[in-house]
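[[Per-residue structure]]
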Amino acid sequence: MAHEVVSFAHGLTARGVGSGDKVMIIGANQPRMYWSMCAIQCLGALPVLAYQDAVIDEMQYVIQHSEVNVVVAEDQE
């Protein structure tokens, strides 16, 4: 798990994510979602969670009001 978290944190850093940024995670309630949360928090950024089955209006509201810089999505759905 630690390897996954550190690797993902390095990937986020390469994409410009840093302290104070807000990163939205769209995915299922699975271990990788929690690893993503840990990686984001390791960088001093803030995770914003949304489940992939949220209706579009709910998703749009969260995106617009949370001021996210990056979105991490589980898959195309």
